[in-house]
Amino acid sequence: MYRLIKAHRLSVRNTYTGSLNIYTETSDKLCSFCHVHHSKMPRNLTFSQVRHRTSTINTALLPIVKKQKRKPKRYAELLEVTHNLTSNRRAAVRTLNASHLSLLMRQPDVTLDKLHRVKRTNLLKISNAEINTGSNTEGSQNILGLQTPGLIEDSLRMSAENQKSGMTVMDDLETSGISGISDTALMIKDRSLLNSIPDDQAKQDLDDDLEPLKLIPIQKSKKKKPDVSDLERVKQVHEQARRESLVRTLNAYLRVCVSTGMMGRAYHTIMHYRKRSGKIKTAWITDITLFNILLQSYASSGNLQKVKEFLKIIREDGLTPTAKTYAAVFECFGRIPAAKKEQPFLNDIRRMMNRQNITFDEVVHQSKSKRGQYSSVRKAIKLLDPGFEPKPQITEESYDCRLLQRITPDGGKPNCSPIGNSLTLDNINRRYSRQVNHEIVGHVEIKSIEKFDKSKPIVPYYKSLISELEEEWKRTASEAFDRDLKALKSREYQPIPNAMVLYPCLCVLDKEEYVKAILRETWRLADGSETFSPSFSFLCKNLGKHINDKYEILESKNHGYLENLQKVYSRYSKWYVDRPDGANGRTAWQRIAEQVSPELNLELESIRWPVNLQISVGKFLYQIILKDIKLDVSRVRPCSKTKHFLPAFYTLFRHNTQKYLIEEIKPHPILAKIYRDSQPETLKFDTSLVPSECPPRPWSSVQSGGYLLLRTDVVRVPIYAMEQWKRLEVVPKRQLWPSLDCLNQLASIPWTVNTVILDLAIKIFRNGGSERLNVPQPPSVLTPPPLLKRDCSEKERKSIFKARMDLRRQKGEMYSLWCDALYRLSLANHFRNKIFWLPHNMDFRGRVYPVPPHLNHLGSDLARSMLIFALGKPLGPNGLDWLKIHCINLTGFKKRNSINERLRYANEILDEIVDSAERPMDGEMWWAMSDEPWQTLATCIEISNALKSPNPEDYICRFPIHQDGSCNGLQHYAALGRDQSGAENVNLHPSSVPQDVYSSVAGMVEDIRKRDANNGVEVAQVLDGFVKRKVIKQTVMTTVYGVTRFGARLQIARQLKDLDEFPQEFVWSASLYLAQKTFDSLRSMFDSARQIQDWFTDCAKVISTMKGKNMEWVTPLGLPVVQPYSKINPTRTGLKEVAMDTYEKPNATKQKNAFAPNFIHSLDSCHMMLTSLHCEKQGITFVSVHDCYWTHPCTVEIMNTICREQFVALHSEPILEDLSEFFVRHYIDPQQKDRNAKEDLESDLSTRKLKHTLTNLPQKGSFNLKSVLKSTYFFS
């Protein structure tokens, strides 16, 4: 005993006590009152870590093993009958289906213990309890042996669980209409049904199966082994994926090492992977770009020895030098004093260039990536050619597109500035300085319009507490960053650093920037939503991207980019204000940049980190947030004298829309309460989420444009979609200019806020919102569900539980809408009486969107009503009439009437329009009855102001007039197929009154319903009087965009549910009926559209399944499109990104279903872009919301003419024929026919089938496309 005590004391004597760690343990319990699981109060578990004889102070926690519920073992009792013995065997079931039982029945000599030998599978693990034949009669009659009480209880419990969880497998099958012979096999395959077959049925089955049977030999089906060439091809594809991933990550890693001065690490890293190339195929370094990075770095420091060494390596590895390679060599010679001594070496370089046909001009043009490089290269070249002077780089400015041949580089209308005289040049330059500062800081802080209760005395205390917490967290984060960075450096240390590590990425900025990023995340998390939070990986990616953005801005400063940008932008803003020529924004920017900044290219190379690297950086910083940021929970009470520190943030796991758990981060409830009750008066937005204060930088390439310094993606694609980016980077720049110029035109339009509408909306929002006026209400207006009582029945409990779940969902939806309105109104209030711009980008199909998501013209009715043009123009002779027509269009009252009748109606109710403008809330409120009430009110106010002016024609109007397409998707289908009937229904053909396709379809559905009602169909009788235009409109609208039958059913069910008179018990059956009849009516009305859509679907099916490739095409304006739908999302490990859509199997279902709507969307986008470019040429204001075009009232006629002309020009192109040729050229190997005919008949047949499908174009109708030019209601 003495020795034990002594040993215990000795073990504690020389120890190191680590930091006090507090963990939170949570559990739940089943309430005996309401029979619902409730969470227990969290219990804090405090551990003090003790170490013995250690040389490090880093904590080493034992892993906490989670308690996991043991899965019940699935088994069945089978009765084995032989000539001498009956055995009741209990078998653990892994996979038991109809074929296995059939094997037992058909081969009576085979016992259970030999079954696995016959099947060559380890099917059953058997432990038998043999019973004499006459000892248990009942048992011999029960084939499943259900007489054991334990089995019966397990079966009942499993059955009850299945009933509670939802429909069983058999319920799903019965619902799907599956029945017949295969039902028995499906029942046996369902393991949960093995223990629940009735005894009588089992007895009958036993009697049938015990009859003498002949032994039937089993013939195994021969599975076709994959071809060796196919396996080799798949292997090569995966190897290529790993190589590309390695190159991308190495590219970013080497740049970071160079930026941080870790040249030795960069050198050893590339040498390490070069050495591995001979051993590991996926480590091949064959990209000359990686060597150019180090070459340029050594050249800028004048290290000629290293430059020669790398040139030797390039020759040894068989790589081909580029103009950038030679630029780095000449830069080195331009920086060293004794360059003439190396004249023979320079002559060798010149001979190498001549063999590759690389000129000195090409080398000079590739030496504009950083300050001083251009002059050094010129100086070195003059050693070889003293009279050398670089030739100016000639850029082809005209379009390479048949549809844009009439638009020349200087063919636009001069002196038509988008801003007019609203701003001076000095004002724009000051705005430029503010915008650059916002982008460097990374966020914008604005005042919130939320109404607070100022009477709470605790608010000042919470405000001061938050300031103290942030100061404490700043010190803590700084210390933790130093500690963890030191530990990371020690952990990643190698005598010769060779492999890629995370350490350089955490040294590329000052420590203060990382600490600011950590504090930025703590604020965002603490002020986040209670019901929703992004996944942990998403948060890490965003934090890593923020560090990447900071790094890019720092690099642009170091390379002299910021100084040259200011010079170029100053000249560009002067051109923007004056517009002395007819050039567009991109052409003007390129010309000015060539004149002002000839030695530095403003189109910097992308230094964007791969997503896996961004996530790794974000995870490192988030570990500090989770482990070191603490909160004294006792400080929530002002007079508390105790201290109780807990982690301020914790992780939890939630189910996403799929079956997987997603890790999320939430703030401590007390921290969330402190931030919420502090009543923050400001909101912080990332700079990329806020409109620009100055004209955006024009897009001149896919890498340069949008905001001034912040990198904006020109195309919105998922993070793993690499194919689209590859296409954009390899196509000629001229091919992308139409799309980029459209983005520039839309971004050049200045906006301002309609202050009258803004003030009224803020007033209603602060007073609790309005359901009638579509102003979001706070979740507090909802009434709580009834309380549970002890004597509640099971049905009442379920009803209350469902009501609570519905309330929780409704609260989340309402809070989301309320926050959206808060952000939008606060931003609009921030830009009150100011002018701002909206940078634009596009999705992969070419559809255009503003980059700032909150304050733009693409939102709801309220969002659109708050924005007007900053440039005002006189109404002109017809402007007032267009305002009145637009007002009636917004109401939806006269959709089937002609334009003249709408104008006459507007004049008849002019008093109500003026009353709405002058007394919007206490008058007759005619505007509130409109389909778009807020836009209608804004139009009423503009009409009233114009009428009050002495001369309405001279009234300066900033209000936009909308011209909307008539079911634009069907218009494109009708034009593609030259469908006469379809064209008439969607207003491609001239008519005296607008044709409403929604009403036409509703009429056809009603005729079918009447026939079915007369035949006694119950649901058709119930729908009497409810088949209205509004019920089926959304389904008709989205049919051409790929809505499924299930989606259409939901759309119609939502409309029927809103009808108070409709019997709610028939909503689901009636929606199914109407969806089916709507689809049938559309297919009969648009025959050519149906054929084209079927051809699209067939092409996508054979391409994605037979060729295993993504659907790909090129729009008529030259934009390459690749559908980003793959089977598996990318998986990443460490710093290596493994999977990309290039090498993943395409999701054939999504590829097939999405191709038709995506192709129509791309045509819709082409029509908009053509209209945009021609409106810019004419000098008129133009913006769009997809198929809704906006302009000033005085230029509506001009825009309408352009719109129709460009639609005819677009569809006069052989769109389907070009698409078919592209498919054949892209997906069918021209040499495959001869090779397959000799080697593989099956492959030859599949190729013929593929070619037949791709070339089997649907026939066209007789519609005259030029009729669109005379159609008044094509866009109206």
Automatic annotation (TrEMBL):
Class of this enzyme: transferase
E.C. designation(s): 2.7.7.6
Gene3D superfamilies per the UniProt record, alphabetical: 1.10.287.280, 5' to 3' exonuclease, C-terminal subdomain, DNA-directed RNA polymerase, N-terminal domain, Tetratricopeptide repeat domain
Alphabetized UniProt keyword annotations: DNA-directed RNA polymerase, Nucleotidyltransferase, Transcription, Transferase, Transit peptide
Catalytic reaction(s) noted: RNA(n) + a ribonucleoside 5'-triphosphate = RNA(n+1) + diphosphate
Record-annotated membrane-spanning stretches: none
Cross-referenced InterPro entries: DNA-dir_Rpol_C_phage-type (IPR046950), DNA-dir_Rpol_phage-type (IPR002092), DNA/RNA_pol_sf (IPR043502), PPR_rpt (IPR002885), RNA_POL_N_sf (IPR037159), RPOL_N (IPR029262), TPR-like_helical_dom_sf (IPR011990)
Domain (DNA-directed RNA polymerase N-terminal): residue spans on this chain: 433-748
GO biological process: DNA biosynthetic process; mitochondrial transcription
Keyword field contains Isomerase: no
PPR repeat ranges, renumbered to this chain: 287-321
GO molecular function, one term: DNA-directed RNA polymerase activity
One Gene Ontology cellular component annotation held by this UniProt entry: mitochondrial DNA-directed RNA polymerase complex
Functional note: DNA-dependent RNA polymerase catalyzes the transcription of DNA into RNA using the four ribonucleoside triphosphates as substrates.
Family: Belongs to the phage and mitochondrial RNA polymerase family.
Protein name, UniProt field: DNA-directed RNA polymerase
